[in-house]
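debug: dumping io for the single-chain case to check the tokenizer round-trip. Nothing else runs in this session.
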Amino acid sequence: MAEVKIERREDFERALRKFKMQCKREGTLREFRERQYHTKASQKRREKKKRH
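debug: decoded output
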């Protein structure tokens, strides 16, 4: 889970940017999008094979 500690005089926009980068590194958003809809196992295998 992404967590950002804001320094005393740190700008909110900067903290938000840090949070977004952490989410991107952890793959949180990508995982959310994958789980949003059910995908059959055969479809997942097909997509994986197509990517490589």
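debug: round-trip ok. The mean pLDDT is 90.
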